[in-house]
Amino acid sequence: MKRTGFTLIELLVVIAVIVVLLAILLPALRAARQQAKAVACGSNLKQLSLALTAYEQDNGTFPHGFNDALPLVMTEPPGGYPGVHTHDLQGWWWFHFLANVLEENFGDETILWCPSRTVKDPLLKANVLCGNYGVNRAICKDAAGITGVIGGEFVGTPLGLNQIRRPAETLLIIDSGYSLISWRGASNAPGPFFDNPMREGAFYVPGLAVNNQRLLEGSISLGCKRDAIDGRHPNKSINVGFADGHISRVKADDLFVEETDGNYGNRSPLWRPK
What we know:
Blueprint: H1 8-59, E1 66-67, E2 92-93, H2 99-102, H3 122-125, E3 133-136, E4 171-175, E5 180-181, H4 211-217, H5 225-230, E6 237-242, E7 247-251, E8 259-260, E9 263-264
Parallel strand pairs: 3-5
Antiparallel strand pairs: 1-2, 3-4, 4-6, 6-7, 8-9
């Protein structure tokens, strides 16, 4: 008599083989997906870097990182004020100055949003200012506006390329916990790390080892924990756009700024243009 089906043993063997194959393939598929997102993130940064460079060529300086100074404070930026008004300052951010160059809105799934971001807090998840890309405040300085700081290292006229002696080594825009970033967010320097205390918990470089210490100290928001501690890209790497326009992926800890003889100095790549 002919058999018309599989025996129970044969079915169990087939299922076992499928399970083994899935166990082998899933990590590879997950790694490939992460790599694809990292490449897409690098593409976003390349376009933003080109837009920042085009702005500098037209205006002689890079845009302000944040500007709430008159008369701009009286004018709503393209797409409206981003962020949460109780936590984020209202004004023009660096990407608003690029509107004519980018020729697109700033909504979800545009080049302003990192495809690998992992912020979980609902108030942060829908906020373009948190968990995407940040410009180096040492180059794209803040304007001294009504709610801004009157003086300081990161306030004043933004730099032009002619003021950056080593543009191929100087950070311009990177994967960031907040839309603004500086060497203080990549160091173990004592706080405050950021001028805006309501957003201090989003001011970090993803995947940096010192973030573990800062999380324990309470200076990184729990909603940003995975992004800050685990990082976004394979091997805790981040994408970096340099002032000369090229993009590179580097280890997050390569950006760490450590204390030397009581001072916090540069490492390569450079946070402070010199």
